[in-house]
Amino acid sequence: MKTVPVVALRRNLTQTLSEVEQGESCIVTRHNRDIARLVPPAPAATVTPMRFRVLLLATTLAEDWAVELDELAAGFGGTDPWVRTARSRSEGPSRPESSSHLAR
Fold first, then answer.
1. N or C: which end of the chain has fewer CB within 10 A?
2. What are the angstrom distances between the C-alpha of 24 and each of 10, 75, 92?
3. pLDDT digit string (tens) for 39-78?
4. CATH class of 2-38
């Protein structure tokens, strides 16, 4: 790891940042004391759509997952509060007018 005094960093900022961009880390010093560390960013973790599909298909569900959902729904009176029926759609929004824009 390279050590760079603040004075040298000011004079060669572009060059030092280029070196960091290429993967080198630098410790910035002032009066021979470490005050900062310049490091390249960690690579972004990306998952391609195909890799996501493979991971999703490889995920197993417990055989009783539907039973667990039914038990959770029972705590809400047996109905899912997020599901809107045809009747509730015809009645319009159930929220106050001030927050109706959030429902969309």
1. C
2. 18, 56, 60
3. 999 888 788 889 998 998 898 888 888 888 888 877 777 6
4. alpha beta
